[in-house]
Write a structure and sequence with these properties.
- This protein has 445 residues and is α+β, with helices and mostly antiparallel strands.
- The chain has a domain at 41-324: Class I glutamine amidotransferase (GATase) domain (Rossmann fold, 3-Layer(aba) Sandwich).
- Helix content is 20%, strand content 29%.
- The chain has 9 helices and 24 strands.
- Helix 3 runs parallel beside helix 5 (169-180) and helix 7 packs across helix 8.
- The longest helix is centred in the first third of the chain and has 15 residues, at 54-68.
- The chain starts with 13 loop residues before the first strand and ends in a 15-residue tail after the last strand.
Length: 445
């Protein structure tokens, strides 16, 4: 029997009202395909990468071998520790992981570019701040078959590797080997930098209610708009976000991608990777969880509310599944047959749609594997004791919607393709039922 479906409880009595209409304002065209496409590959990890995730590490090392036709022991890897508050320790952890999967310790370097001093070492790594301008280091980078970007603060990458929007010598070398066929990989902040613009901060509800800001609002509790800023742009076919399903970030990705004029957007979950093969124009999912793909090509957005939208297409795929961005076609692994007879009954309203794993739950158990054509998600914030504001998200099966389910190595796996999403602003009113004192009973003695 499949994994038992868990329920989402409605925490308060809600009166949902004043859903605003959406006007026909179409999304702008996506950016043109670059004249010279990269021959290299990308391994974009959604954060929280476990050392025992062989699928991700083996994929990265295999792509590194392919670049110059080397053995695993011959592959040369450079690790960028720049974003970490403990740069040496973070880079060393990944170095040990690569060694455990067969790479040669002598062929793995920690690239000395950092902005923070690692308290675990005697050296002051903050003195590496200008390393990206070192021409000898830039020449050294051209020898690598792979570059790995650790997690941390993604702004430290852009502030260190770019100057006034222009590439430093080290970044130029990284682009050169990537365009020639090297593999670039990264987790968390190392994933965020892969697109341009990149997402720097913000929450889903904050983005839907407030829109976009281009000023750094990280750590500002009163400003949860999605912060867009300059990224490194290795992946040129859409916007990327990370820690995705686990932290419910699809609202901020939709808002950010629309504002940036990106037709396609991709959210990769934790301990999982999207493997980009540019020459095949394909994305493969590996790892524990999955990838959310957002298509705004047919979406419409209102002119009188920041983020009310209709006809957003959203899909979810997992390990072994592929997406081809030139044709917008999916190749779902044969281990997951198409769902012909949905298993679950109609679901209740999900009252915390931006909560942990809520999107995956709704797209799979609550919709494509459910005897219903619609699933509803809510999220809101109280603005007073009796009122609040938020969004009602309506996920619908359309003619081209498809669901897949199966087991891979004993673990169930889903795919939900071409689900239609409408995002409607709502107002919340709380109604409190007063209890009459004369009808209350005392505890019996």
């Amino acid at each position: 029997m499949r994994k038992w479906k868990y329920a989402f409880a409605v925490a308060a009595v809600l009166i949902v009202c004043s859903v605003l209409g959406v006007q026909s304002v179409t999304q702008s065209e996506s950016n043109a395909t670059p004249a010279e496409e990269a021959k290299g590959s990308l391994v974009i990890v959604g954060g929280a990468l476990s050392s025992d995730n062989a699928d991700v590490y083996e994929s990265f090392l295999s792509l590194a071998q392919d670049f110059r036709n080397k053995t695993k022991e011959e592959v040369k890897i450079g690790i960028m520790p720049t974003a970490s508050s403990e740069p040496f320790q973070s880079a060393s952890s990944y170095k040990n992981d690569f060694i455990s999967y067969g790479a040669n310790e002598e062929n793995i370097d920690i690239i000395p570019i950092a902005v923070s001093d690692d308290p675990t070492t005697d050296e002051d790594e903050s003195k590496w701040a200008n390393g990206a301008y070192d021409k000898k280091l830039a020449q050294k980078v051209t020898e690598y078959d792979a570059i790995w970007f650790v997690g941390g603060n993604q702004l430290d990458y852009t502030n260190s590797l770019l100057v006034n929007g222009e590439d430093t010598p080290v970044l130029t070398s990284i682009r050169d080997i990537y365009h020639s066929g090297a593999v670039l990989g990264g987790s968390s902040a190392g994933a965020a930098i892969m697109s341009d613009p990149m997402i720097g901060a913000g929450t889903s509800l904050g983005a839907l209610n407030g829109g976009v800001t281009y000023e750094d609002n990280y750590g500002d509790e009163d400003d949860n708009r999605v912060f867009l800023t300059k990224g490194l742009g290795f992946f040129e076919n859409g916007m990327v976000d990370q820690h995705f399903v686990k932290r419910g970030r699809f609202g901020r990705l939709i808002v950010g991608a629309w504002d940036a004029g990106k037709e396609m957007a991709y959210g990769i979950d934790e301990n999982s990777a999207m493997i980009i093969r540019n020459e095949k124009k394909s994305i493969e999912v590996v790892g524990e969880s999955g990838l959310v793909i957002v298509d705004l090509s047919k979406a419409k957005k209102t002119t009188d509310f920041p983020s009310a939208m209709k006809d957003v297409s959203i899909s979810y795929i997992e390990k072994g599944d592929r997406y081809f961005w030139d044709t917008k076609k999916y190749n779902i692994t044969g281990d997951k047959p198409s769902i012909e007879e949905p298993y679950y009954p109609a679901s209740s309203v999900n009252n915390s749609i931006f909560g942990e794993d809520a999107l995956k739950q709704l797209l799979t158990y609550d919709l494509v594997d459910s005897k219903t054509d619609q699933a509803i998600g809510l999220d809101y914030v109280l603005t007073s004791e009796k009122k609040g504001e938020g969004f009602k998200l309506v996920f619908s099966k359309e003619q081209d919607t498809k669901g897949y389910w199966g087991k891979i190595n004993g673990v169930e796996s889903y795919a939900a393709i071409n689900v239609s999403l409408d995002l409607n602003p709502i107002e919340i009113k709380l109604k409190e039922d007063k209890v009459k004192e004369n009808k209350m009973e005392k505890f019996p003695k």
